[in-house]
Specification:
This protein has 682 residues and is α/β, with parallel strands linked by helices. The chain has 24 helices and 15 strands. The chain has helices spanning 3-6, 30-47, 58-66, 126-136, 153-181, 217-231, 234-237, 257-267, 287-301, 313-316, 330-342, 365-368, 384-394, 406-411, 418-434, 442-454, 465-484, 518-528, 530-539, 547-562, 590-617, 619-632, 637-644, 652-658, and strands at residues 51-55, 70-76, 81-86, 114-120, 144-148, 198-200, 246-250, 272-276, 305-310, 351-357, 375-378, 491-495, 502-508, 634-636, 670-674. It has a 6-stranded mixed β-sheet. Strand 8 (272-276), helix 9 and strand 9 form a beta-alpha-beta unit. Helix 20 crosses helix 21 (590-617). The chain starts with a helix and ends in an 8-residue tail after the last strand.
Length: 682
């Protein structure tokens, strides 16, 4: 049977079938080399003796013993030998005779080394006879005499080698602990420069596919092409084209950048290496660059393959913006190595790099150029249709009743990311479970949106009747003006129940527009100022409750003047500061700055006067809404319609809202009143 036929059906990219270039080659790791060196050094210190051992005959030993030359004497009865240590003051008197010196420096022994005498006894009782004779003489010796009957050579060997065994045990234990702390990589501390990338082989590929990613049609199309490049490269290279080297996923947090990368890993039948940008950063110098080299080395060995670096801004920050660091900064070294690996002299054929970030503005320009990241895929917040698709994906695992309207939920969550919508679905299920319901209903989704946008209700918060009345008048002002203005966002619900830091809130159902006119901006500003205007018109005083409204209005007016050129005195001019590394001055003079301040103040004052005029004209209706809100604490758009009549301007959102008025908890964005800036009261 031919080998070609034998290998049929096997994946050539499988680790079991792929021939590794270093497979079958033996080698000594760097860790073992260090271990041997440490053992040698330890042996030198542990087994090098600080004594000079001299072997003498029995006659010479008798003479030295009679001269009281020994400090201590050890008699081995079983072996028939004697070991004795010479006194310090007697060492210079030793004659220069031929001895067997066991020392590291036999020719010139150190004066600090102790001299040890060893001899063999002619008989078992020889030492005892000699000792008794000397002790009975006129000059007895002062040496300390001890006896040993042990002749266990094995025990002596174990005692001598115990430090070696203990050192080896400690080394192995230390290496295993380091390996476990570093994610299970073999070699422990000596593998600190290895890449921490997680490998997903075709056999263990991710279960997430493009079907699990709702919306993001353009981004999915771009990534599908990259997957197709790897599967059928000849289709593109036959015409002279080159496969893109990299793609950068850019977008706000929670929009699905990492989920798209998981889908690529699930769709592509090639090895997928995934890691975070922070995995390159380590306390050791040079580790980041070493990990980059090891990552690309692994990817080249497994080519065709894909590398995914999440949060690449951790190492890709612009080098000129690293204040306080020089050319030897570890992050810069890592970035330089990454730039070299992505597009250097060596080719990375068959390796495609994916990266994700939500801070593309701080990335180094060299990292963004063509040849490294050929494509920038923008993953923006989902629009209306995409939010509906995302709701459908996350609702698959929920048990729901027939009252759930996905389109209305999509319209009531403008500005929500995919992660926010997933949180809404999960929170709705939790609310339904707390209510002992058998299925999740529309009211549970509405309550979940309220909980996420406004925070948890704080019905136990203590407020006086005067404060409660002032809050009701404030929120009724927002509701009245937004109902009467054409371009204001349609009202959904008004409440004076404290949520989070807000003492009261008004929810709206904004229309999603690609462009906004000056009239639309002015109507929104007027509705936002309706709370402060209602306090002045009805109560004759103002409070700190409108601080959040004033902040929002001021930013809108500044944008109209400086960015959009919607000012009468400064038309068609944009004063936005251009991004630069050396931006010390604003792009306009002091005189222009005074004119900008005047125009901003003029626009805000005009809309504030307009809001007061509308409230004066509809003072009775406003008072009815405020009284209703004071009594019920929560009123809906239908309650406002009973007082002020139907709005002449109908939008698709309002039509959906009217068809779902049976739900008591519809919600979207809010206008909040922080409790730290609550209206003044007794």
């Amino acid at each position: 049977m031919s080998s070609k036929k034998f290998n049929k059906g096997k994946n050539p990219l499988s680790p079991n079938n792929r021939q590794h270039p270093n497979r079958g080659k033996g080698g000594v790791g760097l860790g073992w080399i260090y271990l041997v060196l440490i053992l040698i050094i330890a042996g030198i210190f542990l087994f090098s003796s600080d004594t000079r051992v001299q072997k003498v005959d029995w006659t010479r030993f008798q003479q030295m013993m009679e001269a009281d030359a020994f400090q201590d004497i050890l008699v081995y009865s079983a072996r028939g030998t004697i070991d004795a240590t010479v006194k310090k003051d007697f060492e210079p008197q030793l004659p220069n005779y031929e001895v067997n010196v066991e020392s590291n420096n036999a020719q010139q022994p150190s004066l600090l080394a102790r001299v040890k005498i060893t001899t063999e006894m002619p008989g078992a009782a020889s030492f005892n006879d000699l000792y008794q004779e000397i002790m009975k003489s006129e000059q007895p010796i002062t040496a300390k005499v001890s006896y040993s009957n042990s002749n266990n050579t094995l025990v002596n060997i174990l005692i001598n080698f115990l430090p070696f065994l203990l050192l080896i045990f400690v080394w192995l234990w230390f290496s295993r602990r380091m390996a476990s702390n570093m994610g299970g990589q073999g070699g422990g501390v000596f593998n600190v420069g290895k890449s921490k990338a997680t490998l997903f082989d075709p056999e263990s590929k991710v279960k997430v596919t493009f079907k699990d990613v709702a919306g993001l049609g353009e981004a999915k199309q771009e990534l599908k092409e990259i997957v197709h490049f790897l599967k059928e490269p000849k289709k593109y290279t036959e015409l002279g084209g080159k496969i893109p080297k990299g793609a950068l996923l850019v977008g706000p947090p929670g929009t699905g950048k990492t989920l798209l990368a998981k889908a690529v890993a699930g769709e592509a039948a090639v090895p997928f290496l995934s890691l975070s940008g922070s995995d390159f950063v380590e306390m050791f110098v040079g580790v980041g660059a070493s990990r980059v080299r090891d990552l690309f080395k692994t990817a080249k060995e497994k080519a065709p393959s894909i590398i995914f670096i999440d949060e690449i801004d951790a190492i890709g920050r612009a080098r000129s913006k690293n204040v306080g660091f020089g050319g030897n900064d570890e992050r810069e070294n890592t970035l330089n190595q990454l730039l070299t690996e992505m597009d250097g002299f060596e080719t990375n054929s068959g390796v495609i790099i994916l990266a994700a970030t939500n801070r593309v503005d701080i990335l180094d320009k060299a990292l963004l150029r063509a040849g490294r990241f050929d494509r920038q895929i923008h993953v923006d917040l989902p629009d209306l249709h995409e939010r509906k698709e995302i709701f459908e994906v996350h609702m698959r695992r929920l048990k729901m009743d027939d009252s759930v309207d996905k389109e209305l939920l999509a319209r009531q969550t403008p500005g929500f990311s995919g992660a926010d919508i997933a949180n809404v679905c999960n929170e709705a299920a939790l609310i339904a479970a707390r209510g002992d319901k058998s299925a999740v209903g529309m009211s549970d989704f509405m309550a979940a949106i309220d909980r996420i946008v406004g925070g948890l209700e704080r019905k136990t918060k203590i407020t006086t009747n005067e404060e409660k009345k002032a809050i009701a008048i404030h929120e009724a002002g927002h509701a009245t003006i937004s109902w009467l203005l054409e371009h204001a966002n349609p009202l959904v619900k008004v409440t004076i129940v404290p949520r989070g830091r807000a003492l009261g809130a008004a929810w709206y159902l904004p229309e999603e527009r690609q462009i906004t006119t000056a009239d639309q901006l002015k109507d929104e500003m007027c509705a936002t100022l309706g709370g402060r205007a209602a306090e002045e018109v009805v109560l004759g005083r103002i409070s700190t409750g409108a601080s959040n409204d004033l902040m929002k209005v001021t930013r809108m007016a500044q944008a109209m003047v400086t960015y959009f050129g919607m000012s009468d005195k400064l038309p068609n001019i944009n004063y936005e500061e251009a991004p630069s590394d050396y931006n010390f001055n604003r792009p306009y003079s002091d005189k222009t700055a005074e004119l900008i301040d005047q125009e901003v103040l003029t626009i805000i004052n005009e809309q504030y006067a307009r809001a007061k005029q509308i409230l004066e004209e509809h003072r009775e209706g406003h008072q009815q809404i405020a009284d209703m809100l004071f009594e019920r604490e929560v009123i809906l758009a239908s309650d406002v319609e009973e007082v002020l009549g139907s709005r002449p301007w109908k939008s698709r959102s309002e039509e959906l809202l009217e068809s779902n008025q049976e739900y008591e908890e519809p919600t979207t964005k809010e206008s909040t009143t922080p409790d730290s800036e609550q209206p003044a009261g007794e």
